[in-house]
Every structure is written in structure tokens, then in C-alpha cells.
Amino acid sequence: MKFLVTAICTLISLAVQAQSAKDYTQKGRELYERREYMEALLNLNKAIEIDKNFAQAYYVRGNIKDAFDDRHGAMKDYNMAIEKNPRFAEAFFARGNVKMKLQDYYGAISDFSAAISINENYIEAYFNRGKARQYLQAYEDAITDCTKIIEINPSNHDAYYMRGIVRLEFGDLKNGCLDLSKAGELGDVHAYEVIKERCNGPEVTKE
Q1: One domain for residues 72 and 162
Q2: Cβ atoms of 191 and 181 closer than 8 Å
Q3: CA-CA distances (angstroms) from residue 42 to 19, 24, 32, 121?
Q4: pLDDT for 84-113, tens place per residue?
Q5: Global confidence as pTM
Q6: In terms of domains, do 148 and 185 share one?
Q7: Is the same domain home to 116 and 184?
């Protein structure tokens, strides 16, 4: 009987702690969104102190460190978030973004791919993976990522714009200019600036 009471009390205590960690994390997230970063950090530190396995707290704290350009500190928190929850797509995505800033494009591609394997409709992960592939001049793979975004959301002007730019870099001028035209049609004014510079020469009209 004594053992049962002790077990119930332990379970209740753990439940209260987990809820408290969630509350502190939510408060930290709200403060982060208001750009009250230091106060947000204090709340997230408290959440982690209460529950060292609460992946969301590490993730939000990583976002704050990233906002401070503490990239290695952010990476450490995203690592912890992924360790605590290996299916945390947003943490993979965020860590990939930090790797992009550190010019670790292969590492970024790996993280974006992990995020996509968890959420196959993760548009932002396809976009940033395409950008990383563009930096590595893996143009066909970057085009594939843009095309996937367009399949998911045919009105995504950013995907048309990036695919247009990548196709121009790849030497496919006609289709690149058509993509830029579509991006402009969907509201991307910058696409028309590129069209003026790149799409009115004889090398395009010949195709």
C-alpha cells in the first residue's frame, strides 16, 4: 500500500513538473515573439531545469540564441531538442538554417532532408534545401526541390522565382525566364527586374 501511494505521488509530481515546463516554455515563446529575449531565456532555462527532456524548451531557446547570432549555442540546443525528440522536424529545419549561416551546405542539406522525411509537405525545408543545393551548384537537384514546392502549392511565387534563377544559372534560359514571368504574375516584383536584365536578349528569343 505504501509503495502504491509513493508511486502515485511520484506520477503526480512528474505530471505537474511536465506541465510546468510546458507553461514556462509557452511563456518563453510568447516573450521571444515579442522580442523580449532575455526574459524569454530565463523562462526557458526554468523549463529545462524542471524537465531536462522537454524538447520544445531547447528548441525555443535555440531560436533565441540564433536571434543573438550565437550560432554554436543555438546548434547545441537544437542538438538537444533532436536528441530528446528524433521526430522533431522543426528542430532539424532550424539546425539546417544555422548550418547554412555557417556555410556547411552539405550538413544543412542533411538536416533539411531529415525534416522532409518527417513532414513530406514541409515547403520551407524544400526551399532552403534547394537554396543550399544552388550554392553547391547542384542545379538539377535545386530545380527538383522548387518543382516539389510548386506541386504542393502552385501559387508559391518564391519557388518559381528561385527555379527561374537556378535555370538561368544552369543555362536553361527559356524555361528560367518563363518561371520568372510566372513569379512576376504571382506578385514577385523582383522577378521583372531580372527579366529586364536577362530575358530580352537574342539568346532567349532564339529558343
Answers
A1: no
A2: yes
A3: 17, 9, 11, 34
A4: 999 999 999 999 999 999 999 999 999 999
A5: 0.87
A6: no
A7: no
